[in-house]
């Protein structure tokens, strides 16, 4: 059936449509710099959107939880083996993506007999010199890098709109609480762009999101003396945010 | 890259992942090719005891190979995670490798399983490595005698464990010491605990640090493989504290003053 190039291209095109349709409901994850590091946040009906990958690397995912989990574990394995065999300094996001998951994702996507990964990933890194790096990885292995923060979402329209706003906001000068407030505001605005707005299970406002869902947020802090600089925000920090924006 | 999950593996086990990637701990040396008279580098005196706020872990800085002093700045107290330290006596190459495996093991477990490994799990992980190392130890090339100090954030208690070379672990409720200089100071530690002004576990941080500095200096007096503090050359013992706040190493600046006051004759 797939011996003709046209049929293969048609099958790949169908896979794009299939994955995009499946991803459509994925709620945004945003990552931005702030004056002491990098913030990554997102709302979800259950925890499992934001993760620590390595000492200075964080991950956010939208899509099928099982697929996000598999790629998370692949990244963890690669990062820890590299850190052990060489050094923690050699574990960089650019290497993990370029030589690791991006080619594997592309190959998997184009092998049309295999199920595609229903994912979109956001990866953030604060390097040893304190410079933030942001990456967005698509289900087909395509990845992009951003200097001033980025967003992933099930909807490409939402991603484009929020991305523009992130680039227009001087997040790198903000303290953590202001960066959090601003990302929450962008998340709120993204709901107005979302095509799946009519879904009753999805909160329509920030207030509803705080009430019905979990806010997951973590930072890579340049002020931490220890090797691993990732930390989830505490309930107290989230409670304070809730009262300031809710 | 494989995305398949093997149901026969232990989730979050970094050592297992290492072995899958081709790493072999126990097969690195073929005994048939061993040359006689190989002199390997050894580390020497380390100690740990409970004090009022947690556990103090200390070690001298000398590494020797036979009669030769190879290095005077060897760090024998190694951080494993935020709440755990390992103090080593024996062959540094093997001990450092063990520490690297453990560091990655605990962090990999925490990140992959999204929970901190239990203290029992951590203690068992070091036992497992020592057991893997028995072959090297029997060949005389990789004997390691570690002390493992950690703070259990759940029970809010500090713990010290001592291991034999086969991997058996022994929980220590008061004090322990290992390495060639340890016989000298074990007696002093016991004496201090039983008949000192206060039992070790009731002593303040400052008293505990003073005692540790004096013990290492005493060990160095009687054991040539244990290095003395040499403030004039900025060589100080390694002293670390494990408490509810995690581990903390004393800086050389702090130790300069503490060595001066602790080693002054009474």
Could you name the ranges of chain B where pLDDT drops below 50 across 5 or more consecutive residues?
none
Question: Any idea what the CATH superfamily of chain B is called?
Answer: Aminohydrolase, N-terminal nucleophile (Ntn) domain
Sheet having the most strands of chain A: 5 strands, antiparallel
Outline type of chain A:
globular
SS field, number of helical segments of chain A? 7
What gap, in angstroms, lies between the N and C termini of chain A?
55 Å
Instruction: Determine Rg of chain B (CA atoms, Å).
Output: 19 Å
Instruction: Note the quaternary state here.
Output: heterodimer
- Overall tally of domains of chain B: 1
Order of helices and strands of chain B: HEEEEEEEHHHEEEEHHEEH
Which class best fits the helix and strand makeup of chain A? alpha+beta
Mean pLDDT of chain B: 90
Q: Helices and strands of chain B: which structural class?
A: alpha+beta
Helix/strand order of chain A, N-terminal first:
HEEEEHHEEEEHHHEEH
In whole angstroms, the N-to-C terminal distance of chain B is 66 Å
- Describe the strand arrangement of the main beta sheet of chain A, using strand numbers: 8-1-2-9-10
Uncertain residue ranges of chain A: none
Query: Which architecture of chain B would the CATH scheme give at its second level?
Result: 4-Layer Sandwich
**Widest sheet of chain B: strand order?**
11-2-3-12-13
Here the CATH topology of chain B equals Glutamine Phosphoribosylpyrophosphate, subunit 1, domain 1
**Which chains share the greatest interface?**
A-B, 21 and 16 residues
């Amino acid at each position: 059936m797939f011996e003709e190039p046209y049929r293969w291209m048609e099958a790949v095109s169908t896979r794009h449509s299939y994955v995009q349709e499946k991803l459509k409901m994925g709620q945004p994850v945003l990552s931005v710099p702030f004056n002491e590091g990098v913030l990554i946040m997102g709302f979800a009906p259950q925890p499992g959107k934001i993760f620590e990958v390595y000492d200075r690397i964080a991950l956010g995912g939208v899509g099928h939880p099982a697929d996000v989990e598999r790629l998370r574990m692949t990244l963890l394995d690669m990062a820890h083996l590299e850190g052990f065999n060489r050094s923690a300094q050699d574990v960089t996001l650019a290497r993990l993506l370029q030589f690791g998951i991006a080619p594997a994702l592309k190959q998997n996507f184009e092998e049309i007999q295999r199920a595609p990964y229903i994912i979109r990933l956001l990866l953030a890194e604060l390097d040893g010199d304190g410079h933030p790096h942001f990456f967005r990885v698509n289900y087909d292995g395509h990845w992009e890098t951003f200097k001033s923060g980025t967003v992933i979402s099930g909807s490409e329209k939402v991603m484009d709109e929020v991305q523009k706003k992130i680039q227009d906001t001087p997040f790198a000068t903000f303290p953590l609480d202001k960066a959090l407030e601003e990302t929450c505001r962008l998340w709120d605005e993204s709901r107005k762009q979302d095509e799946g707005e009519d879904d009753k299970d999805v909160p329509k406002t920030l207030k509803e999101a705080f009430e019905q869902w979990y806010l997951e947020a973590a930072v890579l802090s340049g002020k931490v003396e220890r090797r691993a600089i990732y930390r989830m925000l505490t309930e107290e920090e989230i409670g304070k945010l809730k009262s300031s924006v809710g | 890259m494989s995305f398949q999950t093997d149901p026969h593996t232990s989730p979050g086990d970094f050592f297992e992942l290492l072995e899958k990637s081709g790493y072999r701990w126990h097969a690195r040396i073929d005994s048939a090719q061993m040359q006689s008279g190989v002199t390997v580098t050894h580390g020497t005196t380390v100690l740990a005891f409970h004090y009022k706020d947690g556990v103090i872990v200390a070690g001298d800085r000398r590494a020797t190979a036979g009669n030769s002093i190879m290095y005077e700045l060897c760090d024998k107290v190694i951080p494993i995670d935020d709440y755990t330290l390992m103090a080593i006596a024996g062959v540094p190459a093997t001990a450092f490798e063990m520490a690297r495996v453990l560091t990655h093991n605990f962090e990999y477990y925490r990140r992959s399983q999204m929970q901190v490994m239990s203290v029992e799990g951590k203690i068992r992980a070091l036992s497992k490595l020592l057991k893997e190392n028995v072959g090297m130890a029997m060949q005389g090339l990789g004997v390691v005698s570690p002390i493992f100090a950690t703070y259990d954030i759940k029970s809010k208690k500090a713990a010290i464990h001592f291991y034999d070379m086969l991997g058996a672990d022994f929980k220590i409720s008061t004090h322990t010491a290992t390495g060639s200089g340890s016989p000298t100071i074990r007696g002093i530690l016991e004496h201090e605990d039983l008949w000192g002004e206060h039992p070790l576990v009731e002593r303040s941080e400052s008293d505990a640090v003073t005692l540790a500095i004096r013990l290492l200096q005493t060990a160095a007096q009687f054991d040539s493989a244990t290095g003395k503090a040499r403030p004039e050359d900025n060589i100080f013992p390694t002293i670390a504290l494990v408490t509810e706040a995690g581990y903390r190493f004393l800086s050389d600046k702090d130790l300069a003053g503490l060595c001066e006051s602790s080693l002054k004759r009474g």
